[in-house]
Amino acid sequence: MAETTTHSYLENTGRYKGLLSWLTTTDHKRIGLMYMWAMMVFFLVGVILGEIMRLELFRPGQQFFNAQTYNGIFTIHGIIMIFTVVIPGLAAVFGNFSMPLLIGAHDVAFPRLNLFSWYLFIAGAAIALASQFMGNGPPDTGWTFYAPYSTQTHTNVVAAVFGAFVLGFSSILTGLNFIVTIHRLRAPGMTFFKMPLFPWSIYATAWIQVLATPIVGITLLMIIAERWFRIGFFDPSLGGDPILYQHLFWIYSHPAVYIMILPAMGVITEIIPTFSQKRIYGYRAIAMSSLAIAGVGYFVWAHHMFTSGISTTERWIFSLLTFLVAIPSAIKVFNWVGTMYKGSISLKPPFIFALGFIFLFMIGGLTGLVQGSLATDIHVHDTAFVVAHFHYIVFGGVGFAFFAALHYWYPKMFGRMYNFRRANIAFAFMFIGFNLLYFPQFILGLMGMPRRYFDYLPQFTAGQQISAVGGWLLLVGIIIMLVNLFSKKGAKAPDNPWGGKTLEWTIPSPPTVENFENIPEVTEQPYNYD
Amino acid sequence: MFTEATNFSGDVDLAFKVIIGISIFFLVGITTVMLYFVIRYRRSKHPKAVQVKDSNILEITWTLIPLALAMTMFYYGYAAFRSQRTFPSDAMNVTVVSKMWVWSFVYPGDKESAMLVLPINKAVVLNLTSLDVIHSFYVPAFRQKEDCVPGKTNQMWFIPKLAGEYWVLCAEYCGMNHSYMEAKVRVVSQAEYDAWISALPAKSAEPEGLSIIKKNGCTGCHSLDGSKLVSTSFKGLYGKESLVVTDGKEHTITVDDAYVKTSMYEPDKDIVKGLPKGVMKSYKGVISDGEVAKVIEYLKSIK
To answer: Nearest-CA distance from A11 to chain B in Å?
Structure first.
């Protein structure tokens, strides 16, 4: 029997040993793990920057550093978290590790392109981080790089923008790879409607990555052209239009929210049937709602611009479309809860994280309606309300789904179990800390506290202090979780620790290099618990 | 929290109540059902799952009901907004001029004020402009904001209904002192307004150098009264000795014509010790040589 069908992918079977064997790997599972390690470093840097901002905001006035430093910190916090953590996030880590296993493939369609995408990711992140140490000081534009401020400020915007541009290419190539993989490499007999729902969500995501990312790529290059060659795209003093920048930026960056959240929904859709031992309720409705989100999500971008002075007609059309895109998300939530009905529910850590996701995602989604509606958005736009809303989506949603996925597929990834009790304690700290941190920001926003404020009026102090305390609890939870998962080896994991029905649970934990000795023949629906 | 400070704020608050009310209903309802299922069907009590067939009727129901509610929420938000975009023809006009990091309000008759004073119960249209980057005119108590975009004029309008003082905050991030870019709206009786506006001097009465300083937003960082903002105050600056850093070397200069001009055209060349580099942009090509002379003339006058 060949080495690749008997040895775990974690053992070295290739030409190189040690670190070099990882850096030259084309195995989708190893690449998934390499994304995860890199992202974990970026995530922790982003978390620490966030905690530093909370300390500065603990009292009105200046505490530890000046306004310019604060502006630099929220900018790099946003760039790291958005471009190197939540956008690649679940798609890069679990799209790589799990998706080929779930569709019964040996690897992705273009393994070397996959490794190249990882290197682009690292290069882009390195360039973005280098912006902190080179040139005329850290960029101070916010992660949105709004023109004409971004084309005028003396700080080192070009490096940050170019880093984001390179990261975009990593995203496009990963998307392309996944589309081809899902079209060409599904196990025999696995039609699209016999495919599990996590690959479905990755499929919808991949199309957004391929179609939307080039637009932001071009837009970021336009910023560089305007700064270097004074070509007037956006700055009115050069003959440009700042509103054009906002359109171009959000045509990508709103669909980017769905690049983040669709795989998160996909993960939850895998976890709930497994721990309820039940067929997913509304399989087709969930699959179609992923496509609907990806499709309608393209046409809502101007809801980020309701106060920018666009016409009244534009405003109401985009508001209406925004309300429509909420429906497929609601359908998913109903079907998840429907799946639990008459199930046999096992309250293991992945399922608890999934429940946490549903609750936090609902708050994030429902408060999105306040901002989709015209009159109310005019009040809360660019306030702490928006900060709370998108942290509920990208951290409460994507973050908790990521942790759910990690606890779900961890035994498959490493062939080891972890301590359930400690995982639950970590969840409790994170869940309580998270809500204490971000819920007060809704109230502050309704009271009229604008975002990106270094200093604030005294009436906002109490809310800021509750947020700071929540931030500390959240940090404690994250540390407990990481120590529990990565400090020492747990007991050996069985092949199918949760009683799942999808294909990854039919192979050894950890899988062999080739995943499947023989590609299985699929004859049934996934989630067949009858 | 709920004040009816303008003719619109009541409708906006109603839209908030409708949307947040429906949202809380969904959040509490779904969470309760979910937790009920988790407890009722936990494995120790319910060891064998019962497989349930998909129901198209159920799927359609929970698509159409949220759709109807979503359209209701859209409507309330739209209705309260539409009236804000229907401008009256007999309103008074005030131009809001924003620049890093100060607001100013220009009244008919070329009168300029740092505070927005408005007569109660009278419609006002604000013409929102910016001299540099995007700012956003936000009065939380009025539930209204609209961006001040350079190169175009946006508009908003309202009728103040409640006398008092309200904060104007900048809601669009605009650089270093974004969080300090604030002003006040004061809503007063018609008589008080009339007295105030007639006492306000016309802009043309002020020295030309001062107008140039104000127009370019210099006063965002440099005060005129000796108080310390981001940078040195203009008051008493001319003729003073100052310790500066040029290419990493410290030396003392006297603030004279040449130094003032260098500071405006090449702000990063001689940095006053202790101040950050790269904050001020060059005004070369923005403020002409002739205007620089006017500014110097003004600086000499406030020694």
So the answer is: 37
Chain A residues touching residue B33 (CB < 8 angstroms): 337
Closest C-alpha to A145, from A134, A129, A156, A130? A156
- Asked whether B155 and B127 are in contact (CB, 8 A), the reply is yes
Distance CA(A63)–CA(B75), nearest Å, equals 45
Residue of chain B whose Cα is closest to the Cα of A369: B19
Residue by residue, pLDDT tens for chain A (530 residues) are: 466 777 889 887 777 888 888 999 999 999 999 999 999 999 999 999 999 999 999 999 888 888 999 999 999 999 999 999 999 989 999 999 999 999 999 999 999 999 999 999 999 999 999 998 987 889 999 999 998 999 888 889 999 999 999 999 999 999 999 999 999 999 999 999 999 999 999 999 999 999 999 999 999 999 999 999 999 999 998 899 999 999 999 999 999 999 899 999 999 999 999 999 999 999 999 999 999 998 899 899 999 999 999 999 999 999 999 999 999 999 999 999 999 999 999 999 999 999 999 999 999 999 999 999 999 999 999 999 999 999 999 999 999 999 999 999 999 999 999 999 999 999 999 999 999 999 999 999 999 999 999 999 999 999 999 999 999 999 999 999 999 999 988 999 999 999 999 999 999 999 999 999 899 999 988 898 88
Chain B residue at shortest CA distance from A355: B34
SS3 sequence, A279-311? CCCCHHHHHHHHHHHHHHHHHCHHHHCCCCCCC
Q: Calculate the dihedral angle through the C-alpha atoms of A228, A232, A234, A240, rounding to the nearest 10 degrees.
A: 170
Residue B205 to residue A135: CA distance in whole angstroms: 44
* C-alpha closest to that of B150 among A337, A267, A260, A240: A240
Q: Do A379 and B170 touch (CB under 8 A)?
A: no
Number of C-beta neighbours around residue B217 at 10 A:
19
CATH number for the domain whose boundaries are B206-301: 1.10.760.10
Q: How many other β-carbons are positioned within 10 Å of the β-carbon of residue B181?
A: 24
| Topology of domain B9-85, CATH | Helix Hairpins (1.10.287)
Q: Which CATH class is domain B92-204?
A: mainly beta
Which residues make beta-bridge pairs with B95? B106, B127
Equal fold, B9-85 vs B92-204: no
Q: Which two tokens stand for residue B58?
A: 């159920």
| Pairing between β-strand B116-119 and β-strand B182-188 as defined by DSSP bridges | parallel
Q: Which domains does chain A have, with CATH numbers?
A: 3-506 (1.20.210.10)
For residues A107-123, b (16+ Cβ closer than 10 Å) or e, as one string? bbbbbeebbbbbebbbe
Among chain B residues, the shortest Cα distance to A142 is held by B173
Closest approach of A359 to chain B, Cα-based (Å): 7
- Edge to edge, what strands does the sheet with B92-99 contain? B111-113, B102-107, B92-99, B124-130, B154-158
Structure tokens at A428: 């409790």
- Per the CB < 8 A criterion, the answer to whether A208 and A297 are in contact is yes
The answer to whether the CB of A351 falls within 8 A of the CB of A275 is yes
Name residue A339's amino acid.
T
Report yes or no: A301 and A247 within 8 Å, Cβ to Cβ.
yes
Of A331, A379, A457, the CB nearest to B62: A331
Q: Note the Cα A51 to chain centre separation in Å.
A: 20
Spatial separation of the C-alpha atoms in residues A122 and A124, rounded to whole Å: 6
d(CA A1, CA A46): 46
Q: Is there a contact between A89 and A44 (Cβ–Cβ < 8 Å)?
A: no
Of A152, A343, A373, the CB nearest to B15: A373
Give me A519's structure tokens.
């590609």
| Structural domain spans, chain B | 9-85, 92-204, 206-301
